[in-house]
Amino acid sequence: MTKRKKDYLRGQRIDPKPITGTETAAELIENSFLAYNAGRLRDAARLFVEKMLAEDCTVGMSLSGALTPAGLGMSAVVPLIEAGFVDWIVSTGANLYHDAHFALGMSMHRGTPFVDDVDLRANGVVRIYDIFFDYAVLLKTDLFLRDVSLRPEFQRPMSTAEYHYLIGGYLREREKALGLGRKSILSAAHECGVPVYTSSPGDSSIGMNVAEQALEGGKLRFDVSADVNETAAIVLHAKRKGGKSAVFIVGGGSPKNFVLQTEPQIQEVLGIDEKGHDYYLQITDARPDTGGLSGATPGEAVSWGKVDPDRLPDAVVCYLDSTVGLPLITAYALARRKPRPLKRLYQLREAMNRKLLEAYRAAKKFRDERATAAALPGVG
Questions:
Q1: Which of 241, 306, 364, 365 is flagged as catalytic?
Q2: Number of other CB atoms surrounding residue 57 within 10 Å
C-alpha cells in the first residue's frame, strides 16, 4: 500500500522545551532525546516500560563487557532485579567474578587509561581501562570462591544457575556480616529467585578456580546441557502460559547468543512449535557489517527463528556505550513503572524442565508418527 505525505509526517513534532537543569533523567529522555541514537534510546526506554514490563512478559537480560567493575551491577542491575524488571540473566563469568569483590568488601577505584602499565604491574595494581584495583583483590576473591566451592553442597555436577544461586547465598551472608547494603548481582538474584547463567563457564576466574579444584579431586562440574535446556524451558514456560518473552541485551558476545538461542533450541533442535522472542532490546557499540554476532540486527535474528517476525517492529537497537545506556534506561524504568511481582523462576526450574521434556516428547512422537505413515505403502 502506497503511503501519502501525511502518513510520513505523523511523528511527534520536534519542538522541545529548553533544558533547565532541573529535569529528571526520565524527563530528559522523554523531552530531549528525539533523534539519532538519543532517539533510539528513547524508543528503547519506552519499549522496555510500555511492553516488556507487562506482568505477563518474562524478561531475560544478557550482560557482556566489563560492567560490574564500573559499578553497573549495584547501580543498575540490582535495582532492576529487585523491582522485578529482570526475570533471568545470562552473563559473562567475568562480570559475576568482579561482582563478588564488592560483596566481599573490597574496593575498585577510578583511574586513568593514560598510565604506564609496566609500572602498574610493578606496584601490584590491575587496570581495566580507567579502573584500578589492588592485585590482592583477585587473590582474596579466588580464595573465597575456592573455600566456598569445596563445601559439600557443591560437590556434584550442576547448572551454572545452581552454582550462582549457592554462591549468591554466601555473598549475601558476607554483605550482612560486613554491614554492607546490597552490592552484588548474585546476592540480589539469590534473594529474588532470578536464575543467573554463564554462557562460557570456563572463560573467567570463576571457571579457572573450579578447574584448579578439579585437579585436586573436586567433584563440581558445570553442566552446560542443563543450562541450554533450562533457559529454553524458561522461554517455553513464558509462551505456554499465554505470556510473552523479551530479551534485554546489554552489549553482545556469547551472552547475547545464549539468551537468543533459546528459541532455535525450542524450534530447530527440539522440534517444538514456536515463533521466536516477542521483544528485542539491545544496547551495543558493535557494527552489523563486520558479520559479528554482537552487531547482528534483530532482522538477522528473525532469519534464525530467534525473534518472532510478526514482532519485528517491537525491536530496538541503541548504538551506544552500555555504561551510558543502561543507567539511563534503568532510571527511566524505575521512574515510570511500578515494581512487578517477582516471578522467582529459579524455584520453578524443575517444573519448567518437566514441561519442556513433555513438549519435546510430544513433538518427537508426532514427527515419528508422520515419518512412519509416510513410509507405509499407499500412505501419505
A1: 306
A2: 17
Is 306 part of the annotated catalytic residue set? yes
| SS3 label, residue 204 | coil
Residue 144: pLDDT above 60? yes
- DSSP label at 59? E
Integer angstrom CA distances of residue 113 from 106, 116, 169, 251: 21, 9, 35, 21
Q: CA-to-CA distance for 263 and 356, rounded, in angstroms?
A: 12
H/E segment holding residue 243:
none
The residue written with cell numbers 590482592 in the block is 136
| Beta-bridge partner residues of 247 | 60, 280
> Which tens digit of pLDDT belongs to each residue from 249-288?
999 899 999 999 999 999 999 999 998 999 999 999 878 7
Cell of 266: 525450542
Within 13 A of 9's CA, how many CA atoms are on the CB side? Answer: 3
Residue in 291, 286, 292 with CA at minimum distance from that of residue 318: 286
Q: What predicted TM-score, i.e. pTM, was given to this entire model? A: 0.93
* pLDDT average, residue stretch 109-125: 96
Closest CA to 335 of 18, 110, 45, 102: 45
Mean pLDDT of the chain: 93
C-alpha cell at 204: 573467567
pLDDT tens digits, 26-84: 999 999 999 999 999 999 999 999 999 999 999 999 999 999 999 999 999 999 999 99
How far does Cα 110 stand from its chain's mean position? 25
Q: Which CATH number fits domain 33-369: 2.60.40.10, 3.40.910.10, 3.40.50.10540, 3.40.50.150?
A: 3.40.910.10
